[in-house]
Amino acid sequence: MTTNFRVLVVDDDFHVARLHRDYVARVPGFTALDPVGSGESALRAISALRPDLVLIDIFLPDRSGLDLLSQIDVDAMVLSAARDSESILRARRRGALAYLIKPFDPEVLSVKLRGYARYRKLLDSSSNLDQESVERASRQFSAAETSKKPRSVTEQEIRGALQRASGQHRTALEVAQEIGVSRATAQRYLSVLVEDGSVSVSLRYGATGRPEHSYSLSS
Questions:
Q1: What torsion do the CA atoms of 54, 59, 63, 65 make, to the nearest 10 degrees?
Q2: What would the pLDDT profile of 95-152 be if each residue is shown by its tens digit?
Q3: pLDDT at 190 over 80
Q4: Which helix or strand (DSSP H or E) is residue 9 part of?
Q5: DSSP β-bridge partners for residue 3
Q6: Nearest-angstrom CA–CA distance, 23 and 18
Q7: What domains are defined for the chain?
Q8: Are 140 and 115 in contact (CB under 8 A)?
Q9: For residue range 47-105, what is the model confidence (pLDDT) as tens digits?
Q10: Which SS3 state, helix, strand or coil, does residue 38 take?
């Protein structure tokens, strides 16, 4: 599974392209490739470098970024100053995972990239996914849009307990006992964290042979 996602920025404004490249480079788990400034150079770079994700501007000198979307077989987001509904709808219809209107705060892109990482992690976790897994992966970008909400004290304590486990999986009961809440409360918060991709869940088999869910922070 890919753990370091390679991102290509396609923008004909040299300064903007470098700025967006630097935004990407600051996000853990992502590598920013040298940006390109046209549709043709993007096609060559995609063929040679095989990026995981392409960030495409609509206004390119040799073709529309919307047309480029239909020519490539790679995950893409649109980063454009175009605000009209037709551009946004066409971008979505042609497969854009997200549409960011320029100029935007760097954190907006960072949140989207982190959502993309969770999306890919879920889809790459198995070669035989069920419907629930597909739906969970699809919700990652929606989860990313609300991820800046303040975390509750209980949620922070649960995350702290998992962090102190140093990668070892812990059950809801173990987490509950450590932070002093009921098992039901810990289970409720853990389920939310699993849903937004912050926490991973697996099955642990105990002495009785009955499996129980165990949790760890997602990497």
A1: 30
A2: 999 999 988 888 889 889 988 998 888 888 777 888 887 887 777 766 655 444 556 7
A3: yes
A4: strand 5-10
A5: none
A6: 9
A7: 5-123 (3.40.50.2300), 153-217 (1.10.10.10)
A8: yes
A9: 999 999 999 999 999 999 999 999 999 999 999 999 999 999 999 999 999 999 988 88
A10: coil
Which residues 6+ apart lie within 8 Å of 73 measured at CB?
none
- Using the 8-state DSSP alphabet, how is residue 81 labeled? S
Q: Tokens 């046209």 belong to which residue? A: 38
pLDDT tens track for 7-33: 999 999 988 999 999 999 999 899 999
Tokens of 8: 């290509």
Chain centroid to CA 192: how far?
17
Residues 6 or more apart in contact with residue 75 via CB below 8 angstroms? 52, 53, 54, 97, 116, 120
Tokens of 211: 């499996």
